[in-house]
């Protein structure tokens, strides 16, 4: 879908902002109907900016801009609700979501369902949900939305529903292939674990750990060697504390 | 207009300053060459001396001409309170407010995970060394009120906690002399959320 040259009152979130020239910012924005876009906010870094305090991540905004392709020019940005209170170290999980969107979504590709899921994910991060489970559900949804959906319900060989008791080797771009019970390896899981990843319901830590193991390999595969900076920063933060 | 090579180089060099574009650089260069060559020479000397003579304080990472900056070296400052800020400009702003008598730690940035800026870039090792020294009894988090500033504050609070040092966060709210109707909604909601009991 070609983006019109004027877009008004679009539900949006800022994923990332970086300084541009003397007093402006370039914003990476994720919006409902046009996906990821780049927007210039002129004068955003001045002390008396007209956007005063509104241009920050995790704040639900209604944005209007002009221009298409490349960089657009921000005309207005109003908060539509109170900021989703993602605070403290949970912000790191929020940054991780934002980086995933920036790395996996092409500019201008609309993903309204992923947008809705992003809002829901931020709400869960703001509440007291298990951060790890929230992130794994988002990763599975993101992969599906961008066309790398994983088959987490059926056997890749005979297309039968997965047996919770059976052991499977997960082959990237194919799916779960049954193997002998004694097998081990990075991508060997029980059927129950794979089904849990597909449903997003994690009844124990082992399932959550399996999900992290699988999704990390799959995400890295599709990122094609591009590192996730938030993951690296988080690792060095853990080394400090 | 084509400038001579030396003038072109001078214009390009002046443009590295904030707020200086092509036109301003041209005005500055022509002024120095036409009217104030002595001023230009003084500028060169001062710049050269400053760049060679100013480093970072080994205790707080503020600019310093010796191994320790004047604030850390002063006897009168309360060394048991440490205020963590993002930039030297923040130190100057707090000093100008004349409301603080403790010492500082300058991060020279803030956590920005999407840009790959993590704890190593913020001199966290030096901060940890100070926290483990047992001298500090309060750490004040004065990072900015942006999401990156909040993440930085949360991380450093964790660090302080692991060394049993209580951490406090500076308040966010209505500016003094400000009228409520002109205060942005984000600040106002913070101000209401963090209201304090009124002792008139």
Characterization of this structure:
The complex is a heterodimer of chains A (241) and B (200). Chain A is of the alpha+beta class. Chain A has two domains: 6-79, Beta Barrel (OB fold (Dihydrolipoamide Acetyltransferase, E2P)); 88-240, Recombination protein O, C-terminal domain (de novo design (two linked rop proteins)). Chain A is built from six helices and eight strands, in the order E-E-E-E-E-H-H-H-E-E-E-H-H-H. In chain A, strands 1-2-3-5-4 form a five-stranded mixed β-barrel. In chain A, helix 1 (90-104) packs antiparallel against helix 6, helix 2 (112-126) packs antiparallel against helix 3 and helix 3 (131-145) runs parallel beside helix 5 (205-223). The relative contact order of chain A is 0.11. The model of chain A has no long low-confidence stretch (mean pLDDT 90). By secondary structure, chain B is of the alpha/beta class. Chain B has a domain at 79-169: Dna Topoisomerase Vi A Subunit, Chain: A, domain 2, CATH 3.40.1360. The radius of gyration of chain B is 22 Å and the shape is globular. The model of chain B has no long low-confidence stretch (mean pLDDT 93). Chains A and B meet through strand 1, helix 1 and helix 6 of A and helix 7 and helix 8 of B.
